[in-house]
């Protein structure tokens, strides 16, 4: 990335002011200035360079899209490291949720050893799943479909539907709870679907 000759001499706060005005050079300079340190911080927690790079990229993408409305009360460095910390925590949380589903699936499969996946009619599952999803409240159904079928992230859902990330998480949690109840015997295949 070619930096404007003066950007490298500016303080983080000066760069932030220019970033808020939409100056890409200021963004590039902040990116170059902090990227390696942020990746190292993320890597220390998750021990995966690829994931650490992806999480840091998310933070910078978010920084660019929210540039005009950013309110940073402490230093830019503190803001960025805190943002990376939360991205890492969200990543770890999602891994725990996925691991929890895998454990539930394993326990369920142990209880129904005589039932094989081939015995379950895929059309019946599809029918019951669609019926259960369509019974969800409108917003809940919309958020769930974006999450599970279109693979949107929580933040992408929040942005698309103009709701908070917490509201998006609530709708997904509520949908999963309702689907677990309504699918009952078909839960094993539904759980596989929700792991995606």
TrEMBL record:
Pfam families listed in its UniProt record: Sigma70_r2 (PF04542), Sigma70_r4_2 (PF08281)
The RNA polymerase sigma factor 70 region 4 type domain covers: 132-179
Q: Where is the RNA polymerase sigma-70 region domain?
A: 30-95
Sorted alphabetically, which keywords does the UniProt record give?
Sigma factor, Transcription, Transcription regulation
Q: Which GO terms describe its molecular function?
A: DNA binding; sigma factor activity
Q: Which GO terms describe its biological process?
A: DNA-templated transcription initiation
The UniProt family comment states: Belongs to the sigma-70 factor family. ECF subfamily.
Q: Under which name does UniProt file this protein?
A: RNA polymerase sigma-70 factor
